[in-house]
């Protein structure tokens, strides 16, 4: 029985397993091609692989791009891709956090503009805010812009102020009750 286990350890992976592995590497290559140049620079990628990724990013033909991504996957077969996957996962987590932060600030802005003045009291009670008059004026001007159908300059300024407030100290999550 031990000889069968030893034989199975020496046998190469099945064709199906090789196909699954190739598919995983292809998907990783496709994800790498979709990244921005700044995000790629943050990943531990060898120069040859980085060059192949940049070539793929410049290809507009779907079939040619797919062929280049397959070439990228082939290049990654000979490398340890675990550090690349971990760095890519960290980038994706960071992107999800930024997206959640953006949605939180948007919901605060929308609720403040909808006339929910209780939220303003909650905001002032939970944080030290020296320019409460500026915040109130931005809300008032943004409401007026919406009412008159003007371009949303004050709405954008309110969003920027709330985003800066969220950067220094996270805004509390809004619920439907509040």
Features:
single chain, 178 residues, mainly alpha, Diphtheria Toxin Repressor, domain 2, 76% helix
- Estimate percent helicity: over 70%
* Percent range for β-strand residues: under 5%
Shape: elongated
Mean pLDDT: 87
Indicate the CATH topology of the largest domain: Diphtheria Toxin Repressor, domain 2
Q: How would you sum up the major sheet?
A: none
Order of helices and strands: HHHHHHHHH
When the domains are counted, the total is 2
**Tally of individual helices:** 9
Query: Which structural class fits the helix and strand makeup?
Result: mainly alpha
Strand runs, count: 0
The CATH class label of the largest domain is Mainly Alpha
Q: Which value, in Å, is the CA radius of gyration?
A: 26 Å
What ranges have pLDDT less than 50 throughout 5 or more consecutive residues? none
Cα separation of the termini: 67 Å
Topology:
Blueprint: H1 2-10, H2 15-34, H3 37-41, H4 47-58, H5 62-76, H6 82-113, H7 117-126, H8 132-148, H9 153-168
Note down, in words, how this protein is organized.
This protein is mostly helical. The protein is 76% helix and 0% strand. The protein has two domains: 2-79, Diphtheria Toxin Repressor, domain 2 (Orthogonal Bundle); 95-168, Diphtheria Toxin Repressor, domain 2 (Orthogonal Bundle). The model has no long low-confidence stretch (mean pLDDT 87).
Summarize the structure.
This protein is mainly alpha-helical and 178 residues long.
């Amino acid at each position: 029985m031990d000889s069968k286990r030893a034989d199975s350890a020496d046998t190469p992976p099945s064709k199906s397993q090789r196909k699954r592995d190739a598919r995983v590497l292809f998907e990783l290559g496709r994800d790498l091609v979709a990244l921005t140049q700044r995000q790629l620079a943050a990943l531990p990628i060898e120069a040859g692989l980085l060059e192949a990724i940049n070539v793929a990013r410049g290809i507009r033909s779907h079939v040619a791009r797919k062929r280049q991504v397959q070439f990228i996957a082939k290049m990654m077969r000979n490398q340890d891709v675990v550090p690349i996957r971990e760095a890519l996962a960290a980038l994706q987590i960071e992107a999800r956090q930024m997206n959640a932060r953006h949605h939180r600030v948007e919901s605060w802005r929308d609720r403040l503009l909808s006339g929910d003045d209780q939220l303003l009291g909650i905001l002032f009670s939970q944080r030290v805010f020296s320019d409460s008059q500026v915040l109130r004026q931005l809300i008032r001007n943004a409401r007026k812009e919406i009412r008159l159908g003007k371009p949303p300059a004050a709405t954008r300024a309110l969003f920027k102020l709330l985003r800066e407030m969220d950067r220094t100290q996270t805004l509390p999550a809004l619920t439907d009750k509040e």
